[in-house]
Amino acid sequence: MQTTSFHKSQIDQPHPQRTKEILRAHPEVRTLIGRNPWTAAIMLFILSLQVGIAYVMGRVLPAEYWWVAPIAAWCIGAFANHTMYVIIHEATHNLVFMSRTANRWVAMMADLPNLVPGSMGFVVFHLKHHAHQGDYDQDADMANDWEARLIGNTAIGKALWLLFFPVFQVTRPARLKSINMWSKWTWINLGMAIMFDVAITYFCGWVGLLYLVCSFFFSIGLHPVGGRWIQEHYTYEGGQETFSYYGPINIIALNVGYHNEHHDFPSIPWNNLPKLRAMAPEYYDNLKYHTSWAAIWWQFITDSRFSLFSRVERVGEGKVAMKAKKETAKAA
Questions:
Q1: 20 inside domain
Q2: What is the chain's mean pLDDT, rounded?
């Protein structure tokens, strides 16, 4: 039976209260707050790696071996591009450098292998997601109502949704209130993407471009790393609405699986998130978590209990309470 609505919650999101409790119990957690400029070095390494592989695919391998490009994208490129998404995420929270401008340049450079400009839009939408988690009118991380109804809970529908995940994301800003994603940075992001795409096509040929296109699509969803999008906030049970992933891919995905920890303390960089869990185990060990992106990815596709409605939506008093807290904080 297909679910036709989100799980409703009449209470505020859990993260602000847990943050306060952890700080009271473990004030030493404040020492984990900061920035990690080495993230920029990782970004430059991955950018060089992806361009290098694209060049090999397009200019070194014989043309008749073009089919190697999608395979390489599945085995290497998907992981590389996904890590670049994590770096965009770090820069969005200004966790790389002190300067907001420098962080934006890091985000836009990390965006280059994706071929399409999305980092500056992500800056706007993701911060809204943190402030208004589960608010349908403010949280672009939630699927559109029509989107969820269209995809349903069939395996083929959910697989196609994962494959074309970025296409669906583009449709979500229209429903959000009081959001302006157009700024000079958006145009710089667009200009950099166009110049990079032209350069890749010229120097690496169409096979090199194919490698990066496949890396982009695989890194988004139709690949085990796509389990991340399901792991973070999807549940068919209701109740707990944010989940962490404690598995081996965190090593190359810069601990992005520590999602409860990140929502509780978005000012802590990726390298310190495991330390946060170790400092306050009583707040995290009792929460449900995942140990395999591949497993949750496969379960989401094949389990009819999962659909795009398998998320918590803040309604009624929960939505009012969240809004009141934001207005109080802004006034202070």
A1: yes
A2: 93
How confident is the model over 270-327, as pLDDT tens digits?
A: 999 999 999 999 999 999 999 999 999 999 999 999 999 999 999 986 565 555 555 5
For residue 6, is it left (φ>0), alpha (ψ between -120 and 50) or beta? beta
Cα separation of 43 and 103, whole Å?
A: 12
Total structural domains within the chain: 1
How far apart are the C-alpha atoms of 81 and 90, rounded to whole Å?
Answer: 14
Residue 64 lies in a domain: yes
> Would the pTM count as exceeding 0.85?
yes
Query: What CA–CA distance (Å, rounded) separates 230 from 227?
Result: 5
pLDDT in tens, 256-268: 999 999 999 999 9
Residue 2 located in a structural domain: no
Q: Residue 65: which domain range?
A: 7-331
Tell me the C-alpha distance between 210 and 69, whole Å.
Answer: 7
Does 14 fall in a domain? yes
* Residue 55 CB contacts under 8 Å (≥ 6 apart), including other chains: 203, 204, 208
- Strands (DSSP E) contained in the chain are 7-9, 244-245, 289-290, 312-314
Amino acid identity of 270? W
